[in-house]
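Recall that a protein's primary structure is simply its ordered list of amino acids. Everything else, from secondary elements to tertiary packing, is in principle encoded there. The following example makes that idea concrete.
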Amino acid sequence: MPAATAAEAAPHRSTDAAANDGAGCLLAVVVYEPANPPDAVLAAAAKKLQARGLRVGGLLQEAEGSGKRTELFARDIASGQRVRLFEDRGRKARGCRLDAAGLAEAASWLRNAIDAKPDVLFVNRFGRQETIGRGLVEEIGAAIVSDVPIVVPVAATLLPQWRRFAGGEGVRLKATSPERLCQDLVTWLGTAPTMDARDAA
């Protein structure tokens, strides 16, 4: 699914939290500054949600190294497996460092998580690759139209691109601490319409 059509695929779906304070909105956006990635807080919050009995699926992002030598990984919440998203091509390499095989594996994990219809789905990132139609953009688009509550970290600098992609911003949250984020997510999930419908089924 091209980035420009993700919102068009689900015009019925509420993605703009401004009008209703998040009630009925199935998108939660964890906004962060690029210098302060939220991944450790997100991982801890996901565990806390699982401890409360929620079915949590999707991907979490992990980083190793620093600077230009940083390697990024995606971890599947369901299986605990991890795959590299960016390959280390050496100090003199230029251009894209996306690991095609790793990306394909992560994409399949995210698709499986969407199909499983968890109580909440974590997406590892909406980043620069997704803004140009690469990375996991197709899977994120599929998640948006899946009627599953979704948590997506987005850098503050990329919010305009995210709004165009998703057709709205969603409920804005911050990764200040695992405890606070977990509580904010529980509060938000209580307003998501599919939660009640799934419990009643």
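The two ends are 30 Å apart (CA to CA). The longest strand covers residues 56-64.
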